[in-house]
Amino acid sequence: MFKINRKELYSKIKNIDDPRLYKMLVKNDPARIISLVRFYDLLSEIGTFSFKDHINIAVISGNLSEPELIFFSNASVECLCFDEHIKPGEHQFWDLGLNWSENQYSEYHNKYDLILCEQVFEHIPDPQIAIDNLKYLLKEGGILHISVPCINGIHTEPYYFTAGYHKRMLSYLANKSGGYEIIDCEYWGSKKAVSMYSVIDWTPLVSSGDLIDNIYISSKNFNLKGFIKYFYHKIKYNFQSIWYYGKKDYPVIAWILLKKEMNKNF
């Protein structure tokens, strides 16, 4: 399991040096923050492209507010979204369960340097078809990032098919699909996090962390509501710490970073 302590997380955020990250500590849950920081570190390490390069990014069933997008200053971004409000019988173009190798998708084939598919796979019935489809859209050497819950409560009905995936499942899907190099496949969580996410409690880190988290985050971006909610959250979860990992793994989020292999025809 990917383990990171409070000091390491805030040190990484300080080194990234983007004030928007501090705002996310007030708005985003711990799993999303840790996944985001890990995403930044991995892309920095592999060096496929820099955050300042003009690259093409596809966001799958998401929007322009995806946290990962803050790092890219010159990217062209397209949102390829499943339409939850489409009428019965109408064609659903960006359904991950369809076959994206077909000619109607050809203008999108081999187009994107980076694909972000964040918190989507729990809402699709056939993840194998989905991960195959995303490969068609990637350029050779392009990067795919998928994050998904390991455990979660029912949400976004009727498009909810599983409570989550173990990291082992993500690597299995990638290997079965073929044509991908696995750069990283991990998960994060803690005992308190499991208690939270299993009941769809996505409380931001400013309130779900410890008192020292609240004080530190508030010093960067004061939020009275977050300060008050911190005490309620501590009592609700019997004063557990979000940073206590214990002897067993208690994952709540898994991610996989994949690179499309060169000179592969699909």
CATH topology term: Rossmann fold
Distance between the termini: 33 Å
Low-pLDDT windows of residues = none
Q: Helix- and strand-based class?
A: alpha/beta
> What's the gyration radius in Å?
19 Å
What CATH first level would be assigned?
A: Alpha Beta
Strands side by side in the biggest sheet: 2-1-3-4-6-5
Number of helices: 9
Can you tag this structure with a few keywords?
single chain, 266 residues, alpha/beta, Rossmann fold, six-stranded mixed β-sheet, globular
Walkthrough of the structure:
By secondary structure, this protein is of the alpha/beta class. It has a single domain, classed as Rossmann fold, CATH 3.40.50. 35% of the residues lie in helices and 17% in strands. It contains nine helices and six strands, in the order αααβββαβαβααααβ. A six-stranded mixed sheet has the order 2-1-3-4-6-5, with helices on both faces. Helix 4 links the parallel strand 3 and strand 4. The mean pLDDT is 94.
